[in-house]
From TrEMBL:
<dbReference type="InterPro" id="IPR015424">
    <property type="entry name" value="PyrdxlP-dep_Trfase"/>
</dbReference>
<protein>
    <submittedName>
        <fullName>PLP-dependent aminotransferase family protein</fullName>
    </submittedName>
</protein>
<dbReference type="InterPro" id="IPR050859">
    <property type="entry name" value="Class-I_PLP-dep_aminotransf"/>
</dbReference>
<keyword id="KW-0663">Pyridoxal phosphate</keyword>
<feature type="domain" description="Aminotransferase class I/classII large">
    <location>
        <begin position="27"/>
        <end position="375"/>
    </location>
</feature>
<keyword id="KW-0808">Transferase</keyword>
<dbReference type="Pfam" id="PF00155">
    <property type="entry name" value="Aminotran_1_2"/>
</dbReference>
<dbReference type="InterPro" id="IPR004839">
    <property type="entry name" value="Aminotransferase_I/II_large"/>
</dbReference>
<dbReference type="InterPro" id="IPR015421">
    <property type="entry name" value="PyrdxlP-dep_Trfase_major"/>
</dbReference>
<dbReference type="GO" id="GO:0008483">
    <property type="term" value="F:transaminase activity"/>
</dbReference>
<keyword id="KW-0032">Aminotransferase</keyword>
<dbReference type="InterPro" id="IPR015422">
    <property type="entry name" value="PyrdxlP-dep_Trfase_small"/>
</dbReference>
Length: 384
């Protein structure tokens, strides 16, 4: 049986392939966006885990939108306007897939920053969207380029990760957020704000969500994978009711509902008295990991490489002199360190600027130091 044409156009995930290779115990992986397993709040979840056996109702079929008590809690937790609702999904990645299937017809235009999150490009590719990119600056998207695209191409939506962008780590400035919101309202473009790293800020003050400035022109994707556990596969989508009702309809056909016991478990975790302390511990751990990686990169890298500081998230972006980054990544893997080359984050690989994405959350300080030693050695030999 022949697979669908839309799937034929989607290349296999380079990141999945490199993570498989990086499972070799002799390889230090800076490739995947994996949280440290030590951050999983097992102790905080134990009371609810033990209570689940007495909650027979959560083992029955549930509402497609989500477990009622959790939805009620999230409405308060996220301070949602009365006109907005939340929907639980099986990881925020499913939320993105539901948005694409509910709203994108073949050749509808979707705008993204370049580089951008690989998983979003795959989702929009599967629904045969016309993906148009705008360059990214240190403060967020190039606003002039964004307005030109909005004006000339009338896109249906703008997908973005304003807080600690994947892959670059860029955090949009307040002024950029306000201007993007103004443009979305002016040109009637829906903002799809992906916020999986928002809670992982370890420096500076929190900035309002971009969607706070255009609440009726936005949908927000939220993830619990980074602050609870990826294995729970819990995410949430929030937005005005009119935007979310089509997603609920699509989800009903996709999986009826996400796991109700896991939703109850998540609610118990979020309500635990020590949950905020748990988040503080994650931030502190990742800050020390980031500082270690950044310091070693500054100390050991050739001067031809460029590194930008970040205030949170899970990644740093290492810009390189022009080179074949796929070949470089393979050489690095052969030398015991896994990284992700920049072209995988661009719809058109040939438009990519030479760079590597480096993760700092899932390696020990000693591993980070050794990884940079291996990385610097290869870079000195290959790009000078």
């Amino acid at each position: 049986m022949e697979i669908a044409k839309s799937l034929q156009q989607i290349p296999s995930s380079y990141i999945r392939e490199i993570l498989a290779a990086a499972s070799d115990k002799n390889v230090i992986s800076l490739a995947g966006g994996l949280p440290d397993e030590k951050t999983f709040p097992i102790d905080l979840m134990k009371p609810m885990l033990e209570s689940l056996s007495d909650m027979t109702e959560v083992f029955q079929y549930g509402a497609t939108a989500g477990y009622g008590p959790l939805l009620e809690f999230l409405g308060d937790y996220y301070q949602l306007p009365e006109s907005h609702i939340a929907m639980i999904c099986t990881g925020s990645q499913q939320g993105l897939d539901l948005i694409a299937r509910a709203y994108i017809d073949p050749n509808d235009t979707v705008v993204m920053e370049a580089p951008s999150y690989l998983g979003a490009m795959q989702v929009f590719g599967l629904v045969q969207a016309n993906i148009v990119t705008v360059p990214q600056t240190e403060c967020g998207p190039d606003l002039d380029a964004l307005e030109v695209v909005f004006f000339e191409q009338s896109p249906k939506m703008f997908y973005a990760v304003p807080d600690f962008h994947n892959p670059t780590g860029v955090c949009w400035s307040l002024e950029t957020r306000q201007r993007v919101a103004e443009l979305c309202i002016k040109y009637n473009v829906a903002l799809i704000e992906d916020a999986p790293y928002r809670e992982l800020r370890f420096s500076g003050d929190a900035i309002p969500l971009t969607s706070d400035f255009c609440p009726d022109h936005s949908i927000v994707l939220r993830s619990f994978s980074k602050i609870a556990s990826p294995g729970l596969r819990m995410g949430a989508v929030t937005g005005k009711r009119a935007y979310l009702e089509p997603l609920i309809k699509v989800k009903q056909g996709a999986d009826l509902h996400s796991s109700v016991p896991m939703q109850a478990l998540l609610l118990g975790l979020l309500q635990h008295d020590n949950f905020e302390l748990h988040i503080d511990k994650i931030r502190a751990l990742y800050k020390t990991r980031y500082q270690k990686l950044f310091a070693e990169l500054q100390r050991q890298l050739p001067e031809t490489c460029e590194l930008k500081a970040v205030d949170g998230g899970m990644f740093v972006w290492l810009s390189l002199p022009e080179c074949d980054t796929f070949a470089l990544a393979k050489t690095l893997l052969a030398n015991g360190v896994a990284v992700v080359p920049s072209p995988v984050f661009y719809p058109a690989h040939d438009k990519a600027k030479a760079a590597l994405r480096l993760n700092f959350t899932n390696a020990t300080p000693d591993e980070l130091e050794e990884a940079v030693k291996r990385l610097a050695k290869v870079l000195q030999e290959q790009v000078g």
